[in-house]
Amino acid sequence: MNSTFKKRLLAGSVMLAVAYGQSALAEEEKKYAFPSQDVSSTLDGISSRSGLQILYANNDINGIVTNAVLETDSASGALDQALRGTGLEFSMVNERTAVVRKASFMQGQSGGGGGATSASGGSSRRDTIVVTAQKKEQDLQDVALSVQAFSAEDLDNQGIQNVQDLQFRTPGFTMGSNVVFGQPYIRGIGNGTLTIGSDSSVAVHLDGVYLTRPMSAYQEFFDVERVEILKGPQGTLYGRNATGGVLNIISAKPTDEFEASARFTYGNYDQLRGDATVSGPITEDVSIRLTGFRAKRDGFTDNAFDGGTLDGQDIWGFRGQVLFEPSDNFSMLIAGDYSREDSTRGQGFRVTEPGGGSAGATFFDDPYMVSKDYPARTYTKAYGVSATGELALGGVNVKSITALRHSEFQLSLDLDASDNAHSFVDPETEDSDMITQELQIYGGGENFDWLVGGFYLNEDASTLFDINILPSTRVVPNGFTTVNAYAVFGQATFRLADQLGLTVGARWSGEDKEAMVRTAGDPPSAFNSASEDWSAFTPRVALEYTPTDNVMLYASYTKGFKSGGFNATSTAVPGFDPEKINSYETGLRSVWGDGLFTANLTGFYYDYSDLQVRALVSGVISGVSNAAKADIKGVEGQFNLNPTDAFALNLNASWLDAEFGEFLTTDPDSAMPATVIDLAGNRLSRAPELQLSAGAEYKWDLGDESALLIRGDVSYQSKVYFDEFNYTSRSQDGFATLSGKIGYTLPGGNVTVDLWARNITDKAYAVNILRSAGFYGTATWYGAPRTFGVSLTGRF
Known about the structure:
- This protein is mainly beta.
- It has 6 helices and 48 strands.
- The chain has 2 domains: 31-107, Phage tail protein beta-alpha-beta fold; 154-795, TonB-dependent receptor, beta-barrel domain (Maltoporin, Chain A), CATH 2.40.170.20.
- The longest helix is centred in the first third of the chain and has 23 residues, at 3-25.
- It is globular and about 85 Å long.
- Residues 1-28 and 104-125 have low confidence and may be disordered.
């Protein structure tokens, strides 16, 4: 797809949405007046006229009759009149969402969307957090799906600055890295590959836009409203490459009142981090939000060869949003973002077993000390623009998301990872241009809601490895891929009885891929190409049972599909098959004591076929092959106790049994590499048997809006292997980390000073281990050592 057509498609989407908005302007100003009637009729009427999403549980409203609503011109005024004295109350979660619950549940709670929820293990009150895990706004506790969510307050209090930090607060989730590449795994399912032609098994979405490349999986969190982690295959509503799960990152949106904030952080390793946000109305119908950030830090790995450091960071970026709301039934959000990095992040990997290129070199016992002779550089750039239009047409709503994105990186690295003058890569590059279009049409009422939609993606990507082996060998594989993906999907939820609900959904996905590889250098040039297409039908069925107002039980079956692909940096362009999964899940969602205690339990079993796993396709470049079968089963629990409004305790835990059922392969390190070995019974990589996280928080209200908060968090992860062979030398033993924070909010409530520390015990732990016998041998990437600092936040 050429760039001119992409631009026209985006412009056409915007013009179409604006045309809808202009027609909506002709409608007369909405007035609200209703007779005394059953609650659902009044709430549905207010929602239909205002476009406001009103969430409620059927068991909460059964048998209740609202007051008559005298004529008013605001939805909140209508809700207030209708519910006064009925035993029900409402709270505004955000500008477009309200929650109605029994008054006994709502007492003593604030309704802001920034509040914590029990599932995230966050704060001292069970405030409602709305998630869009099923592409509709729901209270997290009402979702028949395994979801863990973090509000902006949770991210701040728990010291979560980026995607990699989530693994210490989310059992079942691990996050590896290899220089620029983020490698998310959920319940043992992910992808450690590095090159175009293959994709992660955990889909990353930013404000509803799918991000294709692994470098985009590593996201810094700034001005984020919430983060959602959907565990397990999302074969219906998300579909493409979501066999492991989905990571949703939702940015804060423009506000209809002026607000501004700024934060500055200084920490050890000369860490400097700052961000600033301004948001508010420009006209009656237009509001904007602008955010900029910068994060800079010296490296925490010393390089003895030149006296410098590696694993430093220098990244900056901004995000801008313009929200048009010309009428009650139409809105258009135009968003753009840009980020750039030029640092040595991910370059401090250390040789733990010498290889052919590092034999006889200088090594150290200190995990944060290396000796590398070739200069390192990590350069990345990513930007994108999207247009999200929403139109309410009576009982039917239409949503369109159009996006264009570009990402690129350039690396130079010491391939033998030592002070030997043996080999280096300079440069390694990747460029990707992508366009996506998603259309959703949805509606429903008290006992039935539905959603249908379509999805299209086009991506053109290229990559190059300039591999130099001294004194005179040079190999330059240059790969190109084009992907076209299509899907149609639908889901409907039926209320079969007061306590029983049924959700059914399905998705048809089709995907075409083309790959070309041109290899230059010594040996002589070679050229090959390949193409293939795949399709799949992935249904979902879920049954919900709510025996009481605050307890929900569910059971579900989901089928997942991930397309095949090509190893687009290998001369022969070897392909690999699609990955498929049958998932069975059951769960309990419960709230007790008016929100004082929350207990959520999930059990699951996965039956995988043709699981895609990492393999070497050359002496150094990673690719993909298929394991025949894998079986995964496990249990997860999320518990939150709020004995007082000031005090909170949380515990999250997961137990995971993840093994290959059938897997015949060869070991590239074996003396006889052509010998076929059976890895049945081996544990999947990055699949710890046990993960635990626990936190405690106390907040003193000191009067005049001042407060003192103390929080501590501990996490534990049992042993993990980093490849399918389960060698001890490529594993990380179980370890724990501890972090903490002390925060003081000054009188007036506008300024907060935080003292924080992460990895307080200074534990050195591996986040990735790779093997290449002919070059570096075995290389290990380590997580950050102890870090600490002070942050100053101002709100205006």
